[in-house]
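Box 3.1 A note on notation
Throughout this textbook, protein chains are presented in two layers. The first layer is the amino acid sequence; the second is a token string describing backbone geometry. Keep the layers aligned when reading.
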Amino acid sequence: MSRLVRFALSAGAGSFAYGLVEPFRYRLGEQELPIAWNGPQLDVLHLSDTHLSPRDSRLRAFLRSLPARLERTPDLVLVTGDMIEGDDAIDPLLEALAPIQARLGRFYVLGSHDYFVSSGPSYTKYFSGEKTVRRARHTDSDRLEAGLQEQGWASLANRSESIEVDGRRILVSGVDDPYLKRHDTAHIRRAAGDQLAIGLMHAPDVVSEWALNGFDLALAGHTHGGQVRLPGIGAVVTNCSLPSALADGLNRVGRTWLHVSPGLGTGKYAPIRFLAPPEATLLRLVPSG
């Protein structure tokens, strides 16, 4: 065996081993966004794609640690779906989220894994563009939502709410999962008195709806930041219709900021990450006049 072949095999084995470790390298990221409004700075904690199972004790511990990691209680906590991997994760998820508080409100939308239990690996869908859920058992999403709302979380599935802060009105608006085609965008409207507008979705494919309606910020998850990224190439697949450059992190779509969370978990049948570490993200919305 040549030296080059041995090197390639060693590099491949090392990369694979690292890919099994990276899913547990949880971090709290921070981004600063200039926002055109005349209110105070707002701290928005964006959580997504925990894909929690009862075995995920390290992820639960990370979620419980977030209040201590933050300098202060965030103004908003926004969750963009795929919270669980089955009904047995509902109670552990609620226990892990309970310490995470917000000054102005905690809001969420659901993702496909909150509605359906993974029925087996389907790796071809990431390359074929398939967006249907086949032979999948329903989760007890009603119990999940009842538990969240009992803790004070509010659903933004195809609805909007307004929040008052220092005499200024903030619009928070969401859609049900576009990946499952459960979304309805008729309510996405920014009124003249909405001095700040934030949109939530699970899959980022419908970001244009928020941009066309003048929203300042749109949040999404679903892509896991590609979950596997290659140097010089980026995400191998993103499982969404956006260009891969827009399917991870913070970008501009017109005048709207789009933040696609890399998420905190992995799919049940793909427990690997490579150069796409799991992250909870604190977005600091800084007034820019």
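Confidence is low (pLDDT under 50) at residues 4-16. Residues 3-287 form a domain with the Purple Acid Phosphatase; chain A, domain 2 fold (CATH 3.60.21.10).
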